[in-house]
Amino acid sequence: MDCSEDGCSSEAAFRLHVPWGDDRVVCAGHARVESQKEGVVAKPLDAADERLPDGAA
Ligand SMILES: [Zn+2]
């Protein structure tokens, strides 16, 4: 599964829970950026062997 961000073809590794919108799946890099926003929670996909990015809420 690819990252849902436009123009990004990295492998999705996290599911973002966005209070004001739909959940989406993103790569580790985008999870790091999006999780800086208040209320957004990034959780590793079940199949992914990845840790939360540093600084993730
Ligand atoms: Zn991405």
Tell me about this structure.
With 57 residues, the protein is α+β, with helices and mostly antiparallel strands. The relative contact order is 0.27. The mean pLDDT is 88. A hairpin with a 6-residue loop joins strand 1 and strand 2. It has one domain (1-48). The protein has one helix at residues 28-34; strands at residues 14-17, 24-26, 41-44. It has 1 helix and 3 strands. Strands 2-1-3 form a 3-stranded antiparallel beta sheet. Bound molecules: zinc ion. Zinc ion (ZN) is lined by residues 3, 5, 8, 10, 26-27, 29-30. Zinc ion binds at residues 3, 5, 8, 10, 26-27, 29-30.
Total number of distinct structural domains: 1
Q: Note the overall shape.
A: globular
Number of helices: 1
Segments where pLDDT lies below 50 for 5+ residues? none
Percent helix among the residues? 10-25%
The ordered string of helix (H) and strand (E) elements is: EEHE
Class computed from helices, strands and strand pairing:
alpha+beta
Strand content: 15-25%
The overall average pLDDT, rounded, is 88
Measured between the Cα atoms of the first and last residue, the distance is 24 Å
- If you compute it from the alpha carbons, what radius of gyration comes out, rounded to the nearest whole angstrom? 10 Å
Number of strand segments: 3
Order of strands, main sheet, comes to: 2-1-3
Main beta-sheet annotation: 3 strands, antiparallel
List of distinct ligands in this structure: zinc ion
